[in-house]
DNA sequence: GTTAGCACTCACACACATCAAGTGCTAATT
DNA sequence: AATTAGCACTTGATGTGTGTGAGTGCTAAC
C-alpha cells in the first residue's frame, strides 16, 4: 500500500481512531481524540484531518453527526503496519514443522486443538483448517488378522501418515487369504492417488483372490474413503459463542448470517480462498459492508504454516474491529506454543504422579 | 400423569392450544380456537374451559389480555400422549443394534452422522451423545512394525472395538523387540480397565524390555489415552444455527445463554442426566421459565438405544414449542433409517459407475 | 351447560418533542 | 499558511403520550 500519501500526523490519527474503535466499538469523534488520545492539537484540526482521511478512503462516517469509523482500507493500513512490525518472528516455524510432523496422523486433533487454543488466547472464535492441496499417495499396506470376519487394514502414505481401519466382512476369510490380499494390494495399489484406483485394477485383484474375491470391494472402498478423507479440506472452529458478546452481533439476523457461513465449511473455505489479503504468511480477511459481502462487519486473520506437505492455517474470526495487535502477536506465539503443548506430557492430567 | 381430571373436551382444547402454539409461536386466544381450530363451541365456552385448564396448571397467561400458552405441565401431557401413540415401534432397535455394532470403532462418526440426520429431518438442532457408562477392557494387543522409530499399536477391546494408533519413538527399536513388547502387553495389560494400569505393572514391563525400556512409557500412555477416550462421554451437535430462526431466540442474550450451555458439553450432559423426564426410552427435557433453569424456553427430546454395550442417544434440541409429534416420529424413524444409511454403498458419491 | 355482549386490561405501534454528540464552516489567532 | 475557537446544523437515540386491537372475565340471557 502506498503510505506515502499520509503525513505522520495523519498516520497517528488514523491509528488512534482504529485503536479507539477497537476498544469501544463505537464511532470515534474529534473531541475524544484531542482529549483522551494523546494527539497534540485541537479537535478542529483533527476534524480537518479526519475530513481528508475520509476523502482518501481511510475512514467512513455512519451518518452526518457521528464520529468516524475505519473503512476496509483503514483497517488494511493498520493491519499491515502491525504485520510489518511482527514479521521478524519467522524462524520458529521450521522447528514446529519438524516436531508436529509425527503427529500428522491425528491432523484432526491438531486442528481442533489449534483452534481451541486460538480461541482461548483471545476473545474471538478460533479457526484452524487444512486446505485440500495435493493428493495423497499410498506407500504400503499391512493387515492384522483379528478374527475370520474381521481384520485391520493399515495404510501408510507418503509423509509418514499412517491410518488403520477395521474391516468387517459378512463371510469368513483365512489368514493365508488375507496375506495374499495384502501382497496384491502392495503390488497393484501402491503409489496411486485415490483417483487412480480404477475398475480394471480392482477386477484384477478380485481375480487373484478367487473364491473370496468379494472381500476386495469393501476393502478397496475403505481405502478410497480413507484417502479421500486425507485429501479433503477440513475446518475446525472453536468458541463460536464468544462472538455473541460483541455489539456487532447483537442483531440475531446478523448472527444467523455469520453462523450460517461458519457452519457451511465449504463456503467458509471459499470465502477464505477468494477474499483474503495476504502479506507474508499472515492472511487477513476484512469484511466489507458496502459491497454486500457474505461476512460483513467480520474479520478473519490467520497464519499458514506448512506441516509435512500439508498447509495448515490457524487464526481467529471476530468483529471487524478486533484487536489485531493482540491477535497477530498471539498467532505468532501460537506457532511456537503449539510446539511446547504437543511436546509436553499431558497424560493423566494430574501430572505423572501415577506412573 | 393423571389425565382423568381432564374431560375429553379439555383434552381436545389443550391439544389444540399446544398445536396452535407450536405452529405460530404466539399465545393462543379463544377466538382462534373457536373459528380456525375445529372446536365445536363458542369462544366464551372455550374461555371458561381455558380458565379451568389454567387453574389446573396446564396453561399460563403471559399477561392479562393475552391468549394462553402451554405450561411445562401442558407440554408434558401433550408429549406423553404422543409418546404413548408412537411407542409401538419398538421392535427395530435390536436390528440396528446388530448392524451398527460393527461400526462402533467409529463411534465418533456415528454420533456426528446421527445428529446431522436428526437435524436435517427437522428444523431443529440435532444432538447425539454417548454417555460414560462402563469402563472398557482390553482384549488383545497387536503391533505392526513400520520403521525402526515408528510402529502401529493395535488395541482390541471387548465388544469388537478396535483402535489403532501410531507410536513414534525418539530412538530405534528392532522388530524382535517390538514383538517382545507385544507379548508382554498381552500378558500384563489384558483385561484391565484404564484405572487398573498401575505403576508396578509398567515397571515390570519396562524391566522386561531391558535397554529399550524407554519405549514403554509413551506406548502405555497412548493405551491409557485411547481407553480414556473410549470411556468418556461425548456429544455431537449439528445445525445449531437452525434455532436462530425461531422468535424465541430473537434476543441475543438468550441465544448466548443457550449456546453457552451447548458448547460446554459436560454441562449439557449434566442437564440431560438430571432434568429429564423419561417415558420408555424416549426422554424429554422441557425448560422451565419460572424456576430459572439453565435452558428456559428450550426443549430436548431424544431416544436412547443400546449399541454394543454403549448407550447412544439421538434427538433434537429446539424451542419449547417444538413440533413434538414430528420429532418423536422422526426419532423413531431415524433408528431404522440409520440402519439403511450405514448399510448403503456410499462410495464415490456418483454411484458405483466407476467400479 | 352454553352463548352473546360488554367493560376492562395491557402490549405494541406511532407520532412527537427533546437531547446529546459530532460535524462543517467561518472568522479570528499565531 | 496552519491552527483554533465558536456556532449553526444534522441526526440517531431516548422518552412520553395516545390510540388501537387482541383477548379476557363476568354477567345475563338462552
Can you tell me about this structure?
- Two copies of one chain form a homodimer.
- Chain A is of the alpha+beta class.
- Chain A has three domains: 8-82, Arc Repressor Mutant, subunit A (Orthogonal Bundle), CATH 1.10.10; 90-132 and 232-343, Beta-Lactamase; 138-231, Enolase-like, domain 1.
- Chain A has twelve helices and eleven strands.
- The first copy, chain A, has helices at 8-24, 30-35, 43-56, 72-86, 93-101, 107-121, 175-188, 199-209, 216-231, 252-263, 265-274, 324-343, and strands spanning 59-60, 69-70, 125-130, 138-147, 150-157, 161-168, 234-238, 277-279, 282-286, 298-307, 310-319.
- In chain A, the strands form three sheets. A six-stranded antiparallel sheet of chain A has the order 7-3-11-10-9-8, with helices on both faces. In chain A, strands 4-5-6 form a three-stranded antiparallel sheet, with helices on one face. Chain A has a two-stranded antiparallel sheet with strand order 1-2.
- In chain A, a hairpin with a 2-residue loop joins strand 10 and strand 11 (310-319).
- In chain A, helix 5 (93-101) runs parallel beside helix 12 and helix 6 (107-121) crosses helix 12 (324-343).
- Chain A is elongated.
- The N and C termini of chain A lie far apart (57 Å).
- Residues 343-355 of chain A have low confidence and may be disordered.
- The A-B interface holds A 102, 105, 142, 144, 146, 150, 152, 154, 156, 160, 162, 164-166, 168, 198-199, 202, 217, 220-221, 224-225, 239-241, 244-245, 249-252, 255-256, 259-260, 263, 345, 347-348, 354-355 and B 102, 105, 142, 144, 146, 150, 152, 154, 156, 160, 162, 164, 166, 168, 198-199, 202, 217, 220-221, 224-225, 239-241, 244-245, 249-252, 255-256, 259-260, 263, 345, 347-348, 354-355.
- The structure holds a DNA duplex (30 and 30 nucleotides).
Amino acid at each position: 500500500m502506498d503510505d506515502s500519501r499520509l503525513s505522520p500526523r495523519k498516520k497517528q490519527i488514523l491509528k488512534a481512531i482504529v485503536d479507539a474503535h477497537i476498544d469501544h466499538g463505537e464511532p470515534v469523534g474529534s473531541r475524544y481524540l484531542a482529549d483522551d488520545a494523546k494527539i497534540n492539537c485541537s479537535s478542529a484540526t483533527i476534524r480537518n484531518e479526519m475530513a481528508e482521511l475520509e476523502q482518501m478512503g481511510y475512514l467512513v462516517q455512519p451518518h452526518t453527526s457521528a464520529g468516524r469509523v475505519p473503512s476496509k482500507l483503514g483497517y488494511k493500513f493498520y493491519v499491515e503496519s502491525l504485520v510489518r512490525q511482527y514479521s521478524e518472528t519467522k524462524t520458529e516455524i521450521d522447528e514446529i514443522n519438524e516436531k508436529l510432523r509425527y503427529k500428522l496422523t491425528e491432523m484432526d486433533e491438531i486442528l481442533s486443538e489449534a483452534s481451541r487454543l486460538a480461541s482461548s488466547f483471545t476473545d474471538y472464535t478460533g479457526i484452524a483448517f487444512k486446505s485440500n492441496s495435493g493428493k495423497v499417495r499410498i506407500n504400503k499396506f499391512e493387515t492384522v488378522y483379528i478374527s475370520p470376519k474381521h481384520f485391520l487394514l493399515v495404510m501408510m502414505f507418503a509423509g509418514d501418515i499412517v491410518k488403520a481401519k477395521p474391516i468387517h466382512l459378512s463371510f469368513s476369510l483365512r489368514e493365508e487369504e488375507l496375506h495374499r490380499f495384502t501382497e496384491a494390494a502392495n503390488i497393484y495399489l501402491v503409489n496411486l492417488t485415490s483417483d487412480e484406483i480404477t475398475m480394471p485394477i480392482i477386477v484384477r485383484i478380485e481375480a487373484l483372490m478367487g473364491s473370496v474375491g468379494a472381500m476386495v470391494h469393501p476393502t478397496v472402498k475403505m481405502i478410497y474413503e480413507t484417502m479421500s478423507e486425507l485429501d479433503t479440506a477440513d475446518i475446525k472452529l472453536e468458541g463460536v459463542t464468544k462472538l455473541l458478546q460483541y455489539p456487532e452481533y447483537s442483531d440475531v439476523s446478523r448472527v444467523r448470517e455469520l453462523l450460517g457461513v461458519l457452519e457451511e465449511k465449504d463456503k467458509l473455505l471459499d470465502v477464505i480462498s477468494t477474499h483474503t489479503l495476504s502479506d507474508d504468511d499472515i492472511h487477513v480477511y476484512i469484511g466489507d459492508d458496502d459491497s454486500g459481502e457474505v461476512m460483513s462487519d467480520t474479520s478473519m486473520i490467520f497464519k499458514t504454516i506448512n506441516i509435512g506437505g500439508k498447509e495448515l492455517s490457524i487464526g481467529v474470526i471476530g468483529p471487524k474491529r478486533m484487536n489485531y495487535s493482540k491477535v497477530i502477536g498471539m498467532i505468532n506465539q501460537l506457532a511456537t506454543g503449539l510446539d511446547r503443548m504437543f511436546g509436553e506430557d499431558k497424560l493423566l492430567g494430574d501430572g505423572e504422579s501415577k506412573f
